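Give me the fold.
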Amino acid sequence: MNKIQIIALALLFSVTQVHAKEFVVAYDGFYDRLKVINKGQYSVADIGFYLVDMEGKTCELTSGKIYTQSKELPLNFTKDAKLLLPFDETLDKDKAVIVAQQKDNEKSCQLKLQIESSASYSNSLTRHQAYVAYSEFDDLIGGLSGFFMRTLFAFMMPDVNGINVTFSSDAGVSGSNQHIQCKQNKCTIFPQESWHQDQTPIRFNQKIDKVIPFIEK
């Protein structure tokens, strides 16, 4: 990739494809969001950047690079196509471009931004952990929406109503709790103010996959 290509690609703010196997996007949009995370110093709330197809399924990647006019860096990612991007002001100033190589020639990939917990869980979490995740998710969504959206258009902001705990298969919770609803591979928890210091565990019948916000539509 030469200097002219780098300059052209850096102007892109939305995802595009150079050809069937390459997914290309400018770094600056990621940096703006990573800056919110870094400034907020969240203990668990995080943003996941995933590549998925038009049906929301994982796009399998084979390799990737981060390019600037003067250098190239490896692009790290997980098996579920989560892009592991550095928070780097220099990459932002140098108009870096991310290029990911797709395994499937025919598949069109798109970027999915997922607010999620960065913590690791077994088959349980405490009420305190659920409350912290819920509170930080709500704050992070406000931070990502920007100052004007928070002040002038607060009525348009989505409310985080709870958290969703997802699993690889149909899940259930031990005991009964009026603040937890389980259906198929997901349990929705509605944390209460009184849970802030409550270390009572909430136990499920299998290992937790992800903890993400629940926003009532």
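Confidence is low (pLDDT under 50) at residues 1-20, 147-155.
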